[in-house]
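Annual report, structural modelling task.

Input specification for the adenosine monophosphate complex:
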Amino acid sequence: MAKFSINLKDGSVKQEEEKDIIVGIDLGTTNSLVAYINEGQPEILRTPTASKALVPSIVHFDESGSVVVGDAAKEMLISAPERTIYSVKRLLGKSYTDISEIKDLLGYTIIDEDEDTLVKIKVGDRYYSPIELSAEILRELKRVAESRLEAKIEKAVITVPAYFNDSQRQATRDAGKLAGLDVLRIVNEPTAASLAYGIGTSREQAETIAVYDLGGGTFDISILEIQDGIFEVLATNGDTFLGGDDFDRAIIDYWMETYSIPAQLLEDKAFGQMIRLQAEEAKKTLSSSSEYSFSFENQEFSITKETFESIISPLVDKTLEICRRCIEDADIELSSIDQVVMVGGSTRVPLVKEVVAKLFKKEVNDTIDPDQVVALGAAVQADILAGNRKDMLLLDITPLSLGIETMGGLMDTIIPRNSKVPAKAGRQYTTSVDGQTKLKVAVYQGERDLVKDNRKLGEFVLSGIPPMAAGMPKIDIKFILDADGILRVKASETRSNVQTEVQIKSQYGISEEEMALMLKDSLVNAQQDMDQRALIEAQNEGKNVALHSEKFIEQNAAILSSEEVKTLKSHIGTLRSQIESGTKDDINGAMDALNAYSTPLAQRALDHNIAVALKGKDL
Ligand code: AMP
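The model returned the following structure:
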């Protein structure tokens, strides 16, 4: 939105420079919010017609593939669970192995052929990554902000839990990019909550803060130390399945027992839904009243605040135990904690506030709406980045991502843009051909998914790798970026200790304009880049699966029937032709089919091999 000013004396019209608005986004497991700074004060954004500022983090795809997000998607949770994706934040940046414990709790289908690659979600015959799904939620928030502010929004700060690892942070960043947002900074949720309270906004202050975050389904405690405007996470702990939903369940259990209601009645959709809603209502009411009651089919249900507190007390105690452990991990005395900040809807329960205040022996910060505090703090961080708060120290950051070329010409980012400098990061790679003794390491800078669209900074060769089967060598690549922007890249094969190192001046020759252009390109081409990356990744994965399946046939010829070999070969043939000319969904579909057919055969081969190994041995 451009602004014009008219000089009334000479009638000249001048276009005023207007700064882009940077929004702060809390991308939550259950709900998400967007905020901005309005005349110096953080404010939550909602569409003029919305009754609530919270956008449920739920994405629904209808039969035709069109998508709805938020409240409209939430309504579809019960009638179309297979097509309605919730809790996607729990899957972000994770592999199938990482989520093996939770996959059965979700109502939709999670797919992976290879345990170490990132998960995909199957809806109908399409496959979505958690990044694409998170991008849908971010797109909705962008729409909310744009409609409310009547301006184009292209820049954002997004919050993540303090315990998010590099892969989860990178995935959040990618989701932002896919939604058409330049993500200026990924901020820890407890840091944002502290900023909303104005803690750490002055340079002199050195403080230790505990942030207690109890939401609907998760609990997090973080201990931060702030000095010279730098927030350091000393320790973090939590329980990914503990929250207000458990309080609701405790109330339901209490009613079922008190009024001798048979457990199977809960399976009845209407009764189950009714009692769940009443339990949540009771919990919320008891935050400000001493009793709650209602009647249903001539049965009076009630619960007092006293009873409520006694039934949730074991759950609340569990959070305190986790807090104590976190303080221990932070290696500090409880008395050195200066502030306690409350985050998450469930901290509205008075008992929670009381016991937390008692544990930390001080009053808690609870004056800001605990559902909004993280998004409001993200807006404060956005304002700092916009240069509107001169008192805040800004850390030096790398302006563009640094990474290396991997299979298929993909850019693998090792140090993401906007990382604090100095920075150090690394990743492990391996070879793709049997007996490979050399590995070329090509270093690139930029935000595009394919290296050909980024700027090449240099390349070197790690040689002398002892010949091994493909996938056996362990090659560590480390990026060390010093405070002057000088990058050193080290490569070493850990089994044989072969190593080499080069120094690269990372920003050499890039002007501000070029940098801005590179960033703009990455946003404009985000969708195309993501599609191309997804296709190349599916092709790489498909090639691996085909290769393994061929090896499997070779090694197990003795126990496979000719019919089985024929079917396997035909599946491999289909997969190979899809790799050549199919879409990512075609390739994934072919991998699924091959996998479904070969899994029982692999099990049989395993049983057979064990039987052979045991033959002749006494058990
Ligand atoms: P969040 O995940 O932070 O959005 O927290 C949502 C949780 O807070 C849900 O379990 C809500 O039932 C709970 N909640 C919301 N309002 C209240 C309230 N007034 N008293 C107690 N719990 C509440």
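DSSP finds 13 helices and 28 strands in the chain.
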